[in-house]
Amino acid sequence: MDINIKNYITNSRTMDWKPLEENGAETKGIFVKVLRYDKETKRAPTFLLKFEAGASYPYHDHPAGEEAFVMEGEAYFDEHKLAKGDYLYTPPTFKHSVKLAQDARYYLSFQKRLKLLPTKTQKRYMPLRPLTDRAAGSISAKRMVSFSWMYGPLGADTA
């Protein structure tokens, strides 16, 4: 294992936003910065997304769950609005779509490739509940510190 920490740092402030390209999904107005690429699985489990106003991502399933942190703007996961600073954990097999009424940026992490689903199943989802203080205490402090350290202060990247 490489023990040089410099080889594990991603400076997202110097990266360009690239159009998100995925087979089977309309991704117009969605851009990505890959924070970590896993050579073994040949996919990026950790990345930043930027949505232009009106962009959306179709109904899909996360077989191993997902973590999302809204950095700028507002995002709708199904009909539930998340705003700047909101965190969402979706458990394995959670299904949802994402829609944006305004420009937004957020951090995403999921360990297995998502599965696109037919729109007709869209009403079959688990309701989101607000994160309680007790549940918030279970969020890995190491992850949040790691994210802040990799990315820098929120809002620092305005590109």
Number of extended strands: 11
Shape: globular
Report how far apart the termini are: 34 Å
How big is the Rg? 16 Å
Task: Please outline the helices and strands.
Blueprint: E1 18-19, E2 30-38, E3 43-51, E4 56-62, E5 66-72, E6 74-77, E7 80-83, E8 87-90, E9 94-99, E10 104-109, E11 115-116, H1 133-137, H2 141-151
Antiparallel strand pairs: 1-2, 2-3, 3-10, 4-9, 4-11, 5-8, 5-10, 6-7, 6-9
Keywords:
159 residues; mainly beta; five-stranded antiparallel beta sheet; disordered C terminus
Structure description:
The model is unreliable at 120-159 (pLDDT under 50). The radius of gyration is 16 Å and the shape is globular. It has two helices and eleven strands. The protein is mainly beta and 159 residues long.
Compact overview of the structure:
By secondary structure, this protein is mostly beta strands.
